Amino acid sequence: MADVRIVLCPIDFSDLSRQELALAVELCETFGARLVLHHNLAAVSPGLTRAWEWNEVHRAEEASSAKTEQRLRAVLAELPKTVKAEATISSGPVAGILLELAKQLPADVMVLGSHGWSSGDHASVTERVIDGSPCQVLTIHDGVTAANFRLRAVDGRPPARVLVPTDLSDEARRVTDFAFTLARRVPLELHLLHIVARGRGQMDLEAAERRLNDIVPNDLAAQAECHVRQGDAIDEILGFAQGTNPSFLLMGEHARSFLRRFFTRDTAREVLHRAPCPVWFVPPRA
Hints:
Elements: E1 6-10, H1 15-31, E2 34-40, H2 46-49, H3 56-62, H4 65-78, E3 84-90, H5 94-104, E4 109-114, H6 125-132, E5 136-141, E6 160-165, H7 170-185, E7 188-196, H8 202-214, E8 224-230, H9 233-244, E9 248-252, H10 258-263, H11 267-274, E10 279-282
Parallel strand pairs: 1-2, 1-4, 2-3, 4-5, 6-7, 6-9, 7-8, 9-10
Antiparallel strand pairs: 5-10
Helix pairs in contact: 5-6, 9-11
């Protein structure tokens, strides 16, 4: 299903929030969706989460619900008149609140900015939300611009380029199927990418290419291009993205055990924080 009716966009009034809003507006204007802005009073300012300490000025400002409402009204007033929008305020553990709000709305897509990686003393809200999200999550991290993100046709420009990494598993098929459905709804140029591990022979590469081509529906053959690369999955995905400048990446987030996550590199997590463009995740629960 590629119909977006409700977009949830948590903001913290940082510079990154402006990039999130640009993504959310493009979604809403493309699909005619309703935008729900959210601000959590307990959120720590992005610059200080890395040092893990509160700034007293920030505390005094964000503790004021009235001032927060005023700032949200100002954000709503700046949105295009074509976007139907509202805002909500909460206070408490932000990841849990976002997951519950996404479920209650129910949201089809959550637009979420990432200020940094999880560490020993800081859990990334974005990582936690993707792990448990009941809806799709469109992410953007600090240092990335939303200027290239688009879904609608623009006169004189080719369709937006979308990179869809896939390991050809059953879980990944859910993501490619969504990519095909989305490409039937809006003009997109799909680039399906499969990575074969180092050491595999030419026959393995050819077999992977056949499997990748076989999943492309006939009606989308002109809009989809298949690529097979050999090497480390994370390096190849990021390198391909750097070389092709996609509008966004579309990828899955596999269900994983805690031990597997703790002891191995996680492709989705690496791409989330290092991609040169927004990343649209389709989690297992979405």
